[in-house]
Amino acid sequence: MVSKTGSIREIKKIEKKQRIHEAAIRVMARNGYHGTTVSQIAKAAKVADGTLYLYFQNKDDLLVGIFDEIMDRFISEGLSVIEEVADPIEKLKRIVELHLHNLGADEDLACIFQIELRHNVHHMKRFSQSKLRQYFNIVERIIRDAQEQGQIRPEVNPWITAKILFGAVDEMATNWVLRTRDYSLVDMAKPTLDIILNGLGTHHEEPRSAVAIAEAEVGDHRGDLAAEAQSQ
Amino acid sequence: MVSKTGSIREIKKIEKKQRIHEAAIRVMARNGYHGTTVSQIAKAAKVADGTLYLYFQNKDDLLVGIFDEIMDRFISEGLSVIEEVADPIEKLKRIVELHLHNLGADEDLACIFQIELRHNVHHMKRFSQSKLRQYFNIVERIIRDAQEQGQIRPEVNPWITAKILFGAVDEMATNWVLRTRDYSLVDMAKPTLDIILNGLGTHHEEPRSAVAIAEAEVGDHRGDLAAEAQSQ
Amino acid sequence: MVSKTGSIREIKKIEKKQRIHEAAIRVMARNGYHGTTVSQIAKAAKVADGTLYLYFQNKDDLLVGIFDEIMDRFISEGLSVIEEVADPIEKLKRIVELHLHNLGADEDLACIFQIELRHNVHHMKRFSQSKLRQYFNIVERIIRDAQEQGQIRPEVNPWITAKILFGAVDEMATNWVLRTRDYSLVDMAKPTLDIILNGLGTHHEEPRSAVAIAEAEVGDHRGDLAAEAQSQ
Amino acid sequence: MVSKTGSIREIKKIEKKQRIHEAAIRVMARNGYHGTTVSQIAKAAKVADGTLYLYFQNKDDLLVGIFDEIMDRFISEGLSVIEEVADPIEKLKRIVELHLHNLGADEDLACIFQIELRHNVHHMKRFSQSKLRQYFNIVERIIRDAQEQGQIRPEVNPWITAKILFGAVDEMATNWVLRTRDYSLVDMAKPTLDIILNGLGTHHEEPRSAVAIAEAEVGDHRGDLAAEAQSQ
DNA sequence: TATGAATGAGCTTTCATTCAT
DNA sequence: AATGAATGAAAGCTCATTCAT
């Protein structure tokens, strides 16, 4: 009576949970949270309606689960990425690029993350607390480090700065989702970083930040970008 | 067949429409769009359920109507505000301040604007098009003017810049709504503008904006957000 | 204070009642009783919604009023028509022709009469009693006369006979309404009468009834009719 | 994913659909289509309101389903009945008898069939097309056969004849429903057939049908309808 | 573990009718 | 007599959730 294949079953269980997650993301990205029925998700995941309730408490819990999964992945990826470099400014760059890269790589996921997860105050609060707060804490830590190293003006508030950075990046992502994704989201990282990091910089020491220099390398692509932006 | 009291009735009609709008904002701010029933709105507006449908096609149209009303007010106010000054940088500052002032003055309105109006892709698209596009066009226009006058670096993309500015301000507003509004929203205008305008600026003329200097005076209380916010 | 124009007002009142009747027939013929709102009728009659209730107790009463009006007209016309001839068989012919002529002359009226007035048991009962009973009584009386004069077999039951005649004529009318009225309804009178009167006749005295002879005069039109019928 | 008890469930499903049909017929016969709520039908069928929608798309589809079911049964019964005899006239007699027998055996069904299924033009059209057309085609075919065998006058139009026959039978049925069914409906078959078949006949071979002779035996009780009807 | 038929609360919306003007 | 804005009861339908199999 003792299950000898416990671990295999465990894997299958995780697989099925994952399958339901994936299905939910696909269906909800197209129909929205309230426009999607539990039956639709079940059908897309190729399980029975009732089976969903073996893995999730209710429809809402499913959405929350998706959020937590996304955030866990984002954070662990973010942590490993910033470990690769020592320079705080470079860390910020990498985080923003990863953020936009991840969303830009999965349109449905981006749609869920930018819109469906925020469909009411309750979700928004949950969204802005817990996991997202970790994200902000990491960013704030880096900003403080940069301030200590004289790369960012000492007088700016790290919390506000993190908000501004996130807000700008978030707006880029949302806009990309709503614009039927007809341009590369990750390409928005550089111009965004240019402006904000420049705004944060201590310009008297070094008139142009490392970012600005890196940006300068992009060179003539800027014209493309501007053209693209205006063609929307 | 002709109404003798046409004008009076017309006024009453507008008043009632306004009353329903107000009621909807109050109730939806607390319960969310899907958590609010038409009956609840009707009761809050002190009209019968059916009366709502004399003024709005359906529940969704009611939300759309609120959005249009808000945006019309914001835009007309914004236009009159930027006419008062000639300097483009000053115009941007005033717009941001007005934006945060308006939302900060009505918590329920801010909640509707920041969250409920965006509860699905359909609304988001409507939100980002039409009226909001006017808003962006105005901001872009000012940015271009500032570039021509040498106040903003010529190489930044006005479209992206407008997005960044809006994203930062929007994030400030959303955060304020989710944080149970325990600090002054409009006070977020200055630090936000400081960073972004600084990032946009041609730093050789004026190394530090007046805002940055004012900010610097606040000193070292940066750890405490509320203090920071209120100290502005 | 005494109305000197009482009679004129009375006329206007009747006119308005008539106008509402007409409007109701037009609108209901297209949308059906339940598919038509009181407002639609009011608008078509160019009166306010509330005005309808000055002339009718409720929506149902309006339909009943239409029925009574139609029947009164049909019966009075029928009575005057049968007075013009003495022969009972000829009377029956004239009644059937009048019946189909009246309905065939007004498509909307036919639609109301054949379908909307019968939309539930309650109306059907009212329909088959009162006014329609007068109609049947007249037909039965003529059938009895024809039996006394040896034109119709004495053993047939006048009540059943009247039902059969009405049923056949009624089916013709209903079919015409449903078939988008692409043929002449009154043309159905002769072949219908041919079969039924022939079935009622005392064929040993006169192998062909007067009707059959009259019908023979139609001659070659029969081919047209058959062709038309089959083309449906 | 595969149901092990598929066949049993399938049977139960059909049974439940049937149960809902029955319930709908009972309730609608008393209250009419518009006078009956979905909840009433569900309660009568002893299922939940929502269960109805697992078997029918909407309230209207339920009515349509009933119609199709009735017609399928009528037509298959009709086909088997007319195969039992070779004589076309006898076939017509049997069809009419079956028609009135079926309706006369279930008062509620008759009520639905004669009245509720025809409650607006849309239903009438659906009623007169599709299934009912099959019925008419069968009757027309028999009439043509009878014409070829010299039993029905060659000059009568089969289409019109079928309409007259149906109209007469239909009126009998409707009248029976409205008359609180205080006599036997199937007894109306003989006198109806007597008149119409006599009207269609080629009277030189057999001056009087067997039906007419049988009818003649009833004698002089013709004043009393019930007696007449029951004496058949 | 998995199923999916069944549930029934709860929603939006309609519209005949009223009544203050 | 005429108006038409306001009413609110009432209905059809959906769908998250349950539970017998």
TrEMBL record, chains A, B, C, D:
Record-linked InterPro entries: DNA-bd_HTH_TetR-type_CS, Homeodomain-like_sf, HTH-type_TetR-like_transc_reg, HTH_TetR, Tet_transcr_reg_TetR-rel_C_sf, Tscrpt_reg_YsiA_C
Keywords: DNA-binding, Transcription, Transcription regulation
Keyword Amino-acid biosynthesis recorded: no
Pfam families in the cross-refs: TetR_C_4, TetR_N
Keyword Transcription regulation tagged: yes
Domain of life (superkingdom): Bacteria
PANTHER family in the record: HTH-TYPE TRANSCRIPTIONAL REGULATOR BETI, HTH-TYPE TRANSCRIPTIONAL REGULATOR RUTR
Protein name stated in the entry: TetR/AcrR family transcriptional regulator
